[in-house]
Design goal:
Structural class: alpha/beta
Strand content: 5-15%
Number of helices: 7
Radius of gyration: 19 Å
Number of strands: 5
Helix content: 40-55%
Length: 203
């Protein structure tokens, strides 16, 4: 009888493990992650979700990205997103709109810091994704923006993608006419850039 009970407990445990919901990667970003002006299924986050669904155990991506999002609006939205999705990993891709609007870099640093702290307090690992601005913004501002991501990744012990559009932004064939957003055919390359730093966080 005891042996039968032990086997039943073991089998129930196995069944529960198999039925466990996938862990979540929450992506909080702007139009670069929201598939701007391309089919949503072509965007790098959608492609990421397909990759995660093939893993064992499975993961899933939740795309909370909104075109036009700034670090402040992302900071305001994040608490509810963490409470709703309980992500194991947060991919934080914000700051491009702050930069394009010439907003305060100390304010950007403060907002990103707050979001990293929220995620880490919620037991989520963080992948911070940086961005580069066009050269007409000047070296001082561009260098300062770059330093925000590098220094935060070091001090907050997060993973870092220094530039989301590495290998894409300078190739006109891979960019839309606005010069800011990738075409659909470039999105797999964007995903590859993210995946190199994201994969270790899934282990």
């Amino acid at each position: 009888m005891r042996r039968c009970l032990w086997l039943l407990i073991l089998l129930c445990g196995i069944g529960s493990a198999q039925a466990a919901p996938p862990k979540t990667v929450l992506v909080l970003g702007d139009s670069l992650s929201a598939a701007h002006n391309i089919p949503i299924e072509s965007g790098w986050v959608h492609l990421l979700d397909a990759c995660l669904g093939n893993m064992v155990p499975k993961w899933a991506a939740v795309n909370a990205s909104i075109s036009g999002e700034t670090s402040l609006s992302g900071r305001n939205r994040l608490p509810a997103l963490l409470q709703k999705y309980h992500p194991a990993v947060l991919v934080l891709e914000l700051g491009a709109n702050d930069g394009l609007q010439g907003l305060s870099l100390p304010a950007l640093r403060d907002n990103l810091t707050a979001m990293i702290d929220m995620a880490q307090q919620a037991k989520a690992r963080v992948l911070l994704i940086g961005i580069e601005l066009p050269v007409n913004y000047g070296p001082q501002y561009r260098d300062g923006l770059r330093a925000v991501y590098t220094e935060l990744a070091q001090t907050k012990h997060t993973a870092l993608v220094p530039f989301l559009l590495d290998g894409v932004a300078l190739d006109p064939a891979l960019m839309q006419d606005d010069g800011l957003h990738p075409v659909a055919s470039a999105e797999p390359k964007v995903l590859d850039t993210v995946w190199k730093q994201l994969q270790p966080l899934l282990q």
